[in-house]
Design goal:
Order of helices and strands: HEEHHE
Radius of gyration: 19 Å
Distance between the termini: 15 Å
Helix content: 55-70%
Strand content: 5-15%
């Protein structure tokens, strides 16, 4: 990722990704405030991911109630599903956002 004003390269680490969920940054070199220029397709993919996650979670709740012998096992399966979904979204989202252009705010 690069500052649009001074062209300083910023390392898009996990710390930077997690501390700026809206994609708004301040350059450490020149102090310029800039943001990621996300295309419209990004938001479509985000909505699709959330809806697919919700649908699979509902399927787990509906079909899982009879498959698991105890509620503890069912809760563990649901939490594993939740963590795997969040981890996969963050992994792919960070890699994609690192390639996006930036623009001044």
């Amino acid at each position: 990722m690069q500052c649009p004003q001074c062209q300083h390269n910023i390392d898009y680490s996990w710390r930077v990704y997690a501390s700026n969920p809206l994609g708004r940054f301040t350059c450490n070199e020149c102090g310029a405030r800039y943001k990621l220029l996300r295309p419209q397709l990004y938001y479509v993919i985000a909505v699709l991911f959330v809806s697919l996650y919700t649908g699979s979670a509902l399927a787990l709740v509906y079909y899982g109630a009879g498959l698991f012998s105890s509620s503890t096992t069912f809760t563990a399966a649901y939490l594993v599903h939740l963590m795997a979904s969040c981890a996969s979204w963050c992994f792919f989202d960070r890699r994609y956002e690192a390639t996006l252009p930036t623009g001044l705010r």
